[in-house]
Write a structure and sequence with these properties.
heterodimer, A: 519 residues, B: 5-stranded mixed beta sheet
Chain lengths: 519, 158
């Protein structure tokens, strides 16, 4: 009987040598006549332990990590194929406290299954939600999603069911589902992990959305920076078509749905939904005026649902277990769970899925273990490059859309980037303006011109040139950008800038003063 | 000088058009297909694509020049894409950036005079817990220190 060994195939694990580890295990186990079956799973998202491999042993999965290819001979000598002791042996994977304390709903199958095996997916609850949806009316599906309290996980947090209802009720012979897989925020990778580790969940969720609104065509718009996800999705879509999940008749029903993969081309702005639609139509990724909302007139002028990967991948479990099941997690108006991403200078970075309400402090210290550099955490940026920089005084804020907004921040896509005490927040705020200038679509003036002027003002401020005047100029510029930009890029770039100025004013003085202030 | 597609380029553009012409919003898939085959999109491909997709040259050029990913110059032997985003900055990307520029003697968007290296900035590779991150010819590398970069360069010398 062969032993099953799980080696992640996700981009991070591969960047740390997972392919070489898998090859070494296959070759050396064969040489010593020990039959093994290697499954290239997704990653569970414990990145400081990658490549984290697992061995199926007496009904448990024993984890070893981080494993490098040159260590494979000693692992075989330690009989790791039967869970033998070794300094890299971490014990049963589901008893690791980092995982055991999480509430993995959307990410439950990550690292567990073979992402490209539809059978494996089925055996772990896959397609149960779709089966339920096929027995319901369109408005019944929409109502379930409304009742679940699921809000868009891409950042805007708009109630998914309400958006679906608008599309269901919109007039139009052709309707579309568009999955926004243009995960461009620094510090985020949950979409990538789901696409690489559980692609059928995304495909199933997209099909359910199509049933709910009466759409017959859909697109997955994936960023070009994710080639590993592209490979997995391409193969998963082919499998789904061959299995009758997509095509003229979804699982033998009278519903048709076709889903295509499209690749972006390195434009951050295409994560903005109207720019994404322009890009899908073959145009420059420029933001559209609204109204009309995409739900009314979206792709090719037709009613269109645009949802993020995590939003769609969460839908199957809501249909499977019911709205009440999902709604029980979370607090206030933030229902369910959120896959949070610990990134930047963090000792134990990775994916933490928890119900809303977990505190930032618990994430940063209990899960994250503080900084990777061992120095104190000085600032965190939550919600991507347009999110606020927060000091330690804010670390007791619960992860909850309203609570974070009330504290002047934005939860966004749930990425948390950690900085130690060597960070220069004036340099970070300059970068925010520089990034906006590089990625602006150019349609509106506050964003296109304001970002470049912002870089210049911050440079003068940092050089000590009439600091009070430059500060007031910067605040005035930020106010114009926030109130007069067409979309969130220009509109929210002031957030990191102003939060840095508010909480870390000492970083904006002349260099000498900064050195004194920081000791 | 009016650019003309050579035989290889013409074959690539024709194949890209044949494979994608029927798609709704076909322009990005066509440009991707050309670049996948040639490593860049030659200027003479613009009128050919415009004609076949019933677009103006300005529309095709506008799209080609809007997206950072599409290249309008032939690629260097090796393409180095360095992540400049915040999560990588938090673990030393600025220091790495300075080192890489000095080592290669070029800035972002430039190609070394021997044609060996091109350097480009990217904003997030989704590898944010293991930075600094960079791609060498599409291959992702984690935890890249200046010394690690020098070793990678040696290992993957074109």
């Amino acid at each position: 009987v062969s032993t099953t060994v799980y080696v992640p195939r996700d981009a991070t694990a591969c960047s740390l040598g997972a392919d070489a580890v898998a090859a070494a295990i296959a070759r050396q186990a064969a040489a010593s006549r020990q039959p093994v079956r290697i499954v290239r799973s997704g990653s569970r998202g414990l990145f400081w332990l990658e490549p984290l491999i697992e061995v199926s042993c007496a009904g448990q999965r024993i984890a070893y990590g981080p494993v490098r290819a040159p260590q494979v001979p000693e692992l075989l000598a330690a009989d790791f194929l039967h869970g033998g002791p070794h300094r890299l042996n971490l014990g049963p994977v589901d008893q690791l406290s980092w995982l055991r304390t999480q509430q993995r709903l959307t990410c439950a199958r990550l690292g567990v299954i073979d992402p490209l095996s539809l059978d494996d997916y089925r055996q772990h609850g896959g397609l149960a939600g779709l089966q339920t949806a096929l027995s319901m009316t369109a408005s019944g599906i929409v109502q379930t999603v409304v009742d679940s309290g699921l809000r868009g996980r891409g950042g805007a947090a708009f109630p998914a069911g309400i958006k679906w209802r608008t599309v269901l009720e919109a007039e139009g012979a052709q309707k579309y589902i568009v999955c926004n897989a243009d995960e461009g925020d620094s510090g985020t990778f949950s979409d990538r992990l789901v696409m690489e580790g559980d692609p059928f969940a995304l495909i199933e969720g997209t099909i359910i959305a199509a049933l709910a609104v009466g759409a017959t065509r859909g697109y997955l718009y994936l960023r070009a920076e994710y080639p590993a996800a592209r490979l997995v999705l391409t193969e998963a879509l082919a499998t789904a078509r061959a299995a009758g999940l997509l095509g003229e008749s979804i699982l033998g029903s009278r519903h048709a749905f076709d889903l295509q993969l499209r690749i972006g081309a390195g434009a951050y702005i295409c994560g903005e939904e109207t720019a994404l639609l322009e890009s899908l139509e073959g145009k420059r990724g420029q933001v559209r005026y609204r109204p009309p909302l995409p739900a009314v007139r979206g792709l090719f002028n037709c009613p269109t649902v645009v949802n993020n990967v995590i939003t769609l991948a969460t839908v199957p479990l809501i249909l499977q277990h019911g709205a009440a099941f999902y709604r029980e997690y979370g607090q206030g108006r933030s229902r369910g769970t959120l896959p949070l991403q610990l990134a930047g200078n963090i000792a134990r970075g990775g994916l933490v899925e928890r119900a809303f309400g977990v505190s930032l402090r618990e994430l940063l210290y209990d899960y994250g273990g503080g900084t990777r550099s061992g120095r104190p955490i000085r600032a965190v940026q939550i919600g991507g490059p347009l999110g606020a920089y927060w000091p330690a005084e804010k670390f007791d804020t619960p992860i909850d859309y309203e609570a974070i907004a009330a504290a002047g921040g934005m939860l966004g896509h749930g990425g948390i980037v950690v900085f130690d005490d060597t960070v220069d927040l004036a340099a970070q705020s300059r970068f925010a303006m520089e990034f906006c200038a590089a990625e602006s679509c150019g349609k509106c003036t506050p964003c296109r011109i304001g970002s470049t002027r912002g870089v210049e003002v911050i440079d003068r401020l940092r050089a000590g040139d009439r600091p009070e005047f430059q500060q007031s100029l910067l605040r005035d510029l930020c106010s114009t950008m926030s109130s007069a930009s067409l979309c969130g890029l220009g509109g929210l770039t002031p957030t990191p800038v102003l939060s840095a100025l508010e909480y870390f004013p000492e970083d904006f003085g002349p260099r000498a003063a900064r050195v004194v202030a920081r000791g | 000088m009016m650019d003309v597609l050579n035989d290889t380029e013409l074959a690539a553009v024709t194949a890209a058009l044949d494979a994608n012409r029927g798609l709704d919003g076909a322009l990005l898939p066509v440009l991707h297909a050309v670049q996948e085959r040639l490593g860049w999109v030659p200027p003479a491909a613009v009128p050919a694509i415009a004609h076949e997709l019933n677009l103006s040259r300005a529309e095709v050029h506008g799209v080609l020049s809007f997206y950072h990913y599409f290249r309008q110059q032939p690629p260097a032997r090796q393409l180095i894409s360095l992540c400049r985003a915040e999560a990588c900055q938090a673990v030393g990307a600025r220091r790495l950036e300075a080192h890489v520029k000095e080592r290669l003697g070029i800035d972002f968007g430039q190609c070394s005079s021997d044609g060996n290296f091109a350097l480009e900035a990217v904003y997030c590779l989704g590898n944010c817990a293991c930075g600094p991150s960079l791609l060498i010819d599409g291959q992702l590398h984690s935890d890249v220190t200046p010394a690690h970069f020098d070793a990678l360069l040696q290992d993957s010398a074109p």
